[in-house]
Amino acid sequence: MSKRHAAFEALPLGAIKPEQWLRDQLRIQADGLTGHLEEHWADVGPDNGWIGGKGESWERGPYYLDGLLPLAYLLEDEGLIVKAKRWVEWSLASQREDGSFGPESIETVNGDVDKKQDWWHYMIMLKVLTQYGEATGDERIVPFLTSYFRYVRSRIEEHPLRGWAEARGMEMLLSIQWLYRKTGDESLLELASLVSDQTTGWTDVFRDFPFWRKVEQWDWKTHVVNVAMGIKAPGVLYELTGDPRELEAVHRGIDSLMTHHGQAHGMFSGDEWLSGTHPSQGVELCAVVEYMFSMEQLTRVFGEGRFGDILEKVAFNALPATISKDWTSHQYDQQVNQIVCNVAPRAWSNGAEANLFGLEPNFGCCTANMHQGWPKLASHLWMRDGEGGLAAVSYAPCTVTAQIGTGGAAAEATLKVRGNYPFRETVDIELTLDRPAEFGLSLRIPEWCERPVVTVNGEEAALTLERGYAKLSREWSDGDRLTLLLPMKVKTVARNLLAVSVERGPLVYALPIQENWQLLQQREKFHDWEVYPGSPWKYGLLADNEYEISFDDVAYQPFDASHPPVRLKAKGRLVRDWKMEGNNAGTPPLHPNVSGQPDADLELVPYGGAKLRIAEFPTIGHPLEARRHM
Question: What pLDDT, in 10s, does the model give residues 88-116?
Answer without folding.
Answer: 999 999 999 999 999 999 999 999 899 99
